[in-house]
Write a structure and sequence with these properties.
Largest sheet: 2 strands, antiparallel
Helix content: over 70%
Distance between the termini: 36 Å
Number of strands: 2
Strand order of the largest sheet: 1-2
Shape: globular
Order of helices and strands: HHHHHEHHHHHHHHE
Length: 306
Amino acid sequence: RGMDKYENKVGVALISTVMIYWGVTTVLMKHALAYMSSTTYIMLRFTSAAVLVLLIFGRKLYQQKSKILLWHGLILGLLQIIPMECTTFAMYFTSASNSVFIGQLSFIIVPLMECIMKKNLPERRLIRTGILLLFGLFVFSNVLNTGLNKGDMISVMSAIFNAWSILALKRFTKEDDSILLGVLQITFASIISIMVWGLNPGTVKWCAGSINILFFTGIIGTAVAFVVLAIGQSKTTSVNAAFLNLIQPVCAMLGAYFIADEFGNIEQITFYKIVGAFIIIGSLVMYLKESNPMVYRKRAKRKRRV
């Protein structure tokens, strides 16, 4: 039991580290559009990461010769690329606030899916935390003032695929090596992104700015981060992983404020984002403070009176 709690803490720490990094560097994805199209950026990001991880882990992967491992990697690759492409496409129709709000709803979808699959009821603290996080995200995104539009259904699909990705990775790590799963996820995501890019190929403005963005988001933010994330999710619950995703928009707020684009522009931190961030982080701290990997309780069975 003690080992379960220790591994849970390690998993939470690893996922939190990845989410903090992804959040801070999210603004670099926006900056990348000044040098290349979104499909070109996604293709270069995953391809550069795939080359690195295959150079390091390629021999170990070849020695496995497991068709099941390859199949699981393909599924994870699809579940990574589809929501990313959906989010990018949704930005043509919806606001950034709506995209953040709806795209992060996987933290609600994951526990609902697990309740259905396991036929269990969620603990009260899970329900309480879910409501607080939803309220915090609602305030953070300021949806009341931005409204909803037709691009929101695309963002909903992104959230659903993100939830499936979290659940699938947790299930697959019970059977396969978590590091190799991360490697295959990156590799297949790269192959799929190249196919998508081939439908509408674009050029790249190569300079110090574009190279730095690909290094920080591709080599570190993808090659390193996805492997660390796979290890982290293998050590904690799917619900914890889904909840910890909400660290990303909070850190994205900070990254957008401190990291300027090539013209020196930054994004201001609004009152709504500050209040929402405090609610989100406070709710996560209270939830994780118990360090209990069990988040479901079995349905109570009535005893017959004799």
